[in-house]
Design brief:
Length: 311
C-alpha cells in the first residue's frame, strides 16, 4: 500500500505538470530557463558527487510558507510596485496602504498547529526524497530566528511557542526521515532598509537607489545578507542544497563565492543553485512550470506549482 501511495504521488505531480503549461499565461511570469551553453560544470569533486546523488532522488518538495499564507495570496509579489497582470492586489487600498497592511500580517501569523513531523511523513509517503524550505522570500519575512532582524515568525504572536524557530524544526523533521536537505533563501529583501530604502519610493523589484550614490547602503546590505546566510549555514544543521532565488540580484552582488567557500567547509559538496544566474554557481538549472522538451545533458530540476502560484 505504501508503494501505491508513492506511485499516486508521482502520478499526481505528473498530471499537474501537464496541466500547468496552459496556466503559465495566466500567471505571466516564469523564470527563463538557462541554456545548455550557459551551464558550467563544477570542478569540486565533492559537489559533483553530491549532484550525482541528488539526481538519483528524482522527486522532491519545495515549501513556500510565510506572511502570504495568512490571507492566502501569491507569495510576496503583491507588494512589488510593477504594473503587470500577474502581480495583483485585491481591494482598493493605495500602494502605500497596501504595503503597510501586508507588513502588518506579521501580527497574524500564529501557526499553533504547526507539525513539521506530519509534513515529513506525508512527503515521505508520497515518495519524495529531498526537500527545500523557504527561510526567507522576497518580502524579507524570516521563518528562522535571525538575530539580524525582528521581521520573523519568532518575533510575532508565535514567539512564546517552543517551536518559534520554525525553520529549525522543519529541517530537523525532514532530516530525521533521511531526506536530502535544501535551504531556500531570497537574495533580494524588500523589507530591509538597505535594499528598499525608505528615503525613496519602491518603483520595482530592484533596489530603489543608485549604488554609486549610496555605496554605504549597499555595503550594509551585503553584510546583512552574508550574516543571515552564515546563520543558516552554521546553526541549522547539515545541508545538501543552498537554493538562492531572486535573479535580479547576482551572486557577485553579495560575494556568493566567499559565502560558498565558507559554507562548504561545514557542508562539503554543498550544491549551489543561484537560479537563473548562468555560471559556476548555478550547479543545477531550474526550468519553471514545465518539463524540458528534450533531455538535458546537465543537472536540472523542474519546479512546478501545485496551483497557480507558489504560495
Amino acid at each position: 500500500m505504501k508503494n501505491l501511495k508513492r506511485l499516486l504521488g508521482c502520478v499526481a505531480l505528473a498530471a499537474f505538470s501537464m496541466g500547468l503549461s496552459a496556466q503559465e499565461q495566466v500567471q505571466g511570469f516564469v523564470h527563463q530557463q538557462s541554456k545548455a551553453t550557459d551551464y558550467v560544470w563544477p570542478t569540486d569533486q565533492q559537489v559533483l558527487d553530491k549532484l550525482d546523488k541528488w539526481q538519483d532522488q528524482k522527486f522532491g518538495v519545495l515549501f513556500h510558507w510565510g506572511l502570504y499564507s495568512v490571507p492566502g495570496i501569491v507569495e510576496s509579489w503583491s507588494i512589488c510596485s510593477e504594473d503587470v497582470d500577474w502581480i495583483s492586489r485585491k481591494g482598493s487600498l493605495s500602494y502605500d496602504e497596501y504595503k503597510k497592511w501586508y507588513w502588518g500580517l506579521k501580527d497574524s501569523l500564529n501557526p499553533v498547529n504547526f507539525n513539521p513531523e506530519q509534513w515529513a511523513e506525508v512527503m515521505q509517503d508520497a515518495g519524495m526524497k529531498y526537500m527545500i524550505f523557504t527561510t526567507k522570500h522576497h518580502d524579507g519575512f524570516c521563518t528562522f530566528d535571525s538575530k539580524y532582524t525582528d521581521f520573523s515568525i519568532a518575533n510575532g504572536p508565535f514567539k512564546n511557542n517552543p517551536r518559534k524557530d520554525v525553520a529549525f524544526h522543519v529541517f530537523d523533521a525532514f532530516r530525521k526521515k533521511g531526506f536530502m536537505m535544501g535551504c531556500y533563501f531570497s537574495k533580494p529583501d524588500w523589507h530591509c532598509e538597505w535594499f528598499w530604502n525608505p528615503y525613496f519610493a519602491t518603483a520595482n523589484r530592484r533596489i530603489n537607489y543608485k549604488k554609486e550614490n549610496h555605496p554605504d547602503w549597499w555595503k550594509n546590505y551585503q553584510t546583512f545578507t552574508q550574516n543571515q546566510l552564515d546563520e543558516l549555514m552554521t546553526r541549522y544543521g547539515s545541508f545538501d542544497i543552498l537554493w538562492l532565488d531572486g535573479g535580479w540580484v547576482t551572486g557577485d552582488d553579495i560575494n556568493l563565492d566567499g559565502i560558498l567557500e565558507k559554507a562548504r567547509k561545514q557542508h562539503p559538496g554543498l550544491i549551489s543553485v543561484d537560479r537563473s544566474i548562468r555560471g559556476k554557481n548555478e550547479n543545477y538549472q531550474t526550468p519553471e512550470r514545465g518539463i524540458p522538451e528534450t533531455q538535458l545533458d546537465y543537472p536540472w530540476e523542474s519546479c512546478i506549482t501545485l496551483s497557480n502560484d507558489w504560495g
